[in-house]
Amino acid sequence: MEKPVYSDPIWTLLKEQHAFLSAIHMRDLFDKEKDRFKQYSLTIDNILIDFSKNILNQETLSLLVKLATQAGLDKAIQDMFQGKRINATENRAVLHHALRMPENSKLVVEGQDIIPLINQTRNKMINFSEQIRNGIWLGSTQKKIKHIVNIGIGGSDLGPKMVVEALAAYVDPILDFHFVSNVDVHDLGRVLEKINPENTIFIVVSKTFTTQETLLNAKTAWAWLYKYLGDHKLVSKHFIAVTCDVNAAVKFGISDENIFQFWEWVGGRYSLWSAVGLIIMCAIGKKSFMDFLAGAYAMDQHFQSAPFTKNAPVLLALLGIWYINFFDYKSQAILPYHNNLRYLPAYLQQADMESNGKSVDQQGNYISYNTAPVIWGEPGTNGQHAFYQLLHQGTQIIPADFIGFAQGNFSEYGHQEILLSHFFAQTRAMMIGKTENEVKLELEETILSNREKEMILPHKIFYGNRPTNTILCSALTPYNLGMLIALYEQKIFSQGIIWNIYSFDQWGVELGKKLAGKILENLQQQKIPKDYDSSTQGLIEFYYKNLSKN
Ligand code: F6P
């Protein structure tokens, strides 16, 4: 798309729509359109997506869909699925979706069918994970493996950690899974305290195998094992690598047969479907892992074939654009009503903010419209007792995705009904609010004096009209989770296309890394740098002064 998106006449019409709908409360939209739920919801397999509690009507929807069409989303989807090099700033194709295609598919990219490559690595993963799960894969002192420690950061940590936690009901209870990401040694230290060198393996996950945090954590883990085993050859039996750079892993000391490869065309934050998911397969086994891939594949099929008006990722993308670009709502909450999804907000934070947190368009121009929102969230009902006050009555309006499941894993003691009662109540409360009259009637029933009633009245009013999407699934199964993650991935992709930005690079993480390298040299030599700004210099001086206190 050569023309900036905001110069499109549809953008102007959407601005007019915004002005029109700003004067209408969602309550009135529900009153007017009695079948609103039917009009603004869709079901894919076992997932219902209800977007009726949004500030929109059919006119808005049709304009938003036109915006997507105008932006060339159709062609962009085709380009991605065909393996065109759409990640232009890194000159790479974007093919994480190929990792979830059925084994017998074919996908020829630049003259090579990549499915056999994928199958080969996946078979190696299956073989390895089965050996671990069946107690056949032994440590250097012939002990069965009990602890699996994933060392990685960003996309090499957040996805596997989120899925292993989410699918706890499917995880082999004989094994213990740990995740270390932070270069702060308290992270690794916390894990080392709990494990035994003889029955532990470390999976070092790094696409580039150059990431400072991961390599240092891996080296420290190696030294910890060496202290116990006293022989580097024995230590290497406890180390597995997952990377695109096999040579770098070999150089590190990991033996060839313990290296699982993936490819440059898998972005770090989209990599859990690849060998990066090795710990997931060890945790949930081959069958559940394949179900997980199948769920994502089903969502990909839907994304490629459904018309935009009925296309879940596209609709979620358009709603996001509607709020951030026209209402200026710059943040988006992800609120899973399943405690095992507690890492989902952090996972989506990277997926969304690292992909679309850009301010230059595909032609290299600075852009004047908002791109990715700030993504954050917590599971319900915990969040209700913490930050929902702001969601209901704060001055900022934060569109929220509520994600819930009909079935819980344990049905006793009524937890699930209570959880879901809150799940349903919250989106209704955010939409409907509580009017002045309703509060007055409520206060009449109390013994408060008239003065007290008057004083309390404004504080008890909820304006409502706060937008939410509800994603309700049958259960938190591997298949449904695969669908859910792919839904968000494709939403993020669609938004990137409409905003005309490159969603698959992450140049914004480079500068801090470079400066840290320079500052590290100063710190190692205890030098006070004279060419930094006074703030950085002052902070470093304070650090030196406090180094030897306590
Ligand atoms: O610094 C950001 C980043 O490059 C992420 O995009 C990536 O997921 C993470 O670091 C880890 O990178 P790697 O897998 O190469 O260690």
Describe this structure in words.
By secondary structure, the protein is of the alpha/beta class. Helices cover 47% and strands 10% of the residues. The chain has helices at residues 9-22, 26-32, 36-39, 58-70, 73-82, 115-133, 158-166, 185-192, 212-229, 232-236, 246-252, 278-305, 312-327, 344-356, 388-393, 415-432, 436-444, 450-456, 478-499, 510-524, 534-546, and strands at residues 41-44, 47-50, 108-109, 112-113, 147-151, 176-180, 200-205, 239-243, 259-261, 331-336, 374-376, 400-405, 468-473. The strands form three sheets. It has a six-stranded mixed beta sheet, sandwiched between helices. It has a five-stranded parallel beta sheet with strand order 6-5-7-8-9, with helices on both faces. Strands 3-4 form a two-stranded antiparallel sheet. α13 crosses α19. It is globular, with a radius of gyration of 26 Å. 43% of the residues are buried. The structure holds 6-O-phosphono-beta-D-fructofuranose. 6-O-phosphono-beta-D-fructofuranose is lined by residues 153-156, 206-208, 211, 214, 268-269, 354, 506, 509.
- By DSSP (H or I, 4+ residues per run), the number of helices equals 21
Query: Major sheet, described briefly?
Result: 6 strands, mixed
Structural class: alpha/beta
Strand order of the largest sheet: 1-2-13-12-10-11
Give the secondary structure arrangement, pairings included.
Elements: H1 9-22, H2 26-32, H3 36-39, E1 41-44, E2 47-50, H4 58-70, H5 73-82, E3 108-109, E4 112-113, H6 115-133, E5 147-151, H7 158-166, E6 176-180, H8 185-192, E7 200-205, H9 212-229, H10 232-236, E8 239-243, H11 246-252, E9 259-261, H12 278-305, H13 312-327, E10 331-336, H14 344-356, E11 374-376, H15 388-393, E12 400-405, H16 415-432, H17 436-444, H18 450-456, E13 468-473, H19 478-499, H20 510-524, H21 534-546
Parallel strand pairs: 5-6, 5-7, 7-8, 8-9, 10-11, 10-12, 12-13
Antiparallel strand pairs: 1-2, 2-13, 3-4
Helix pairs in contact: 1-4, 4-13, 6-12, 7-12, 7-14, 12-19, 13-19, 14-19
The site of 6-O-phosphono-beta-D-fructofuranose has 14 residues, from loops.
